[in-house]
């Protein structure tokens, strides 16, 4: 092999190796930052179609309805815990921070965080729905026919 072909081959192989390395690093970074959506029933029983359950320590998104009477606030700091439900299954969410203004019991929310135990999520972010007519698509589909819009009295509507 003459020196000119050897040089071209070396350059071509180094470019291909670099492209492969960059592609693998990008895919690894995207995989690490991907938050998978689960409902409380899917966390406990696994996804309907695949049966895949989240692993403890995995970063996930959980969506469901806040169970009325389950919100516990710590009076000394911003820590709050509450339960999410759908299809009868419940998952406890612990959050340290300011909850959205629209957060209340009986409404649909999505919490992003890390699964600590099979039924406990330490949330880094809590998202509340926009208004009583809106519910995130994933939450509405998971609740199916069980979802009912909350009933409000005229006094509650006047406060908002």
Silhouette: elongated
Share of helix among residues?
25-40%
Compute the average pLDDT: 82
| CATH second-level architecture of the largest domain | Beta Barrel
Strand content: 25-35%
CATH third-tier fold name of the largest domain: OB fold (Dihydrolipoamide Acetyltransferase, E2P)
Task: Quickly give the structural class.
Answer: alpha+beta
Write up this protein:
This protein is α+β, with helices and mostly antiparallel strands and 160 residues long. The chain has 2 domains: 1-34; 36-145, Beta Barrel (OB fold (Dihydrolipoamide Acetyltransferase, E2P)). Helix content is 31%, strand content 30%. It contains 4 helices and 7 strands. The chain has helices at 3-32, 40-45, 137-143, 154-159, and strands at 36-38, 59-66, 72-73, 79-86, 89-96, 108-117, 120-128. It has a 5-stranded mixed beta barrel with strand order 2-4-5-7-6. Strand 4 and strand 5 form a beta hairpin. It starts with a helix and ends with a helix. The model is unreliable at 152-160 (pLDDT under 50).
């Amino acid at each position: 092999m003459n020196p000119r072909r050897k040089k071209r081959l070396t350059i071509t192989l180094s470019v291909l190796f670099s492209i492969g390395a960059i592609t693998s690093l990008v895919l690894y970074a995207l995989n690490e930052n991907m938050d998978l959506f689960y409902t409380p029933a899917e966390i406990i029983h696994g996804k309907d179609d695949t049966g895949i359950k989240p692993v403890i320590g995995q970063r996930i998104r959980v969506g469901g309805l806040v169970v009325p009477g389950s919100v516990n606030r710590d009076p000394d700091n911003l820590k709050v815990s509450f339960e999410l439900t759908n299809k009868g299954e419940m998952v406890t969410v612990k959050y340290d921070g300011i909850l959205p203004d629209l957060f209340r019991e009986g409404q649909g929310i999505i919490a992003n965080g890390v699964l600590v135990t099979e039924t406990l999520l330490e949330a880094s972010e809590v998202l509340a729905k926009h208004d009583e007519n809106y519910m995130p698509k994933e939450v509405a589909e998971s609740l199916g026919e069980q979802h009912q819009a909350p009933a409000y009295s005229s006094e509650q509507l006047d406060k908002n």
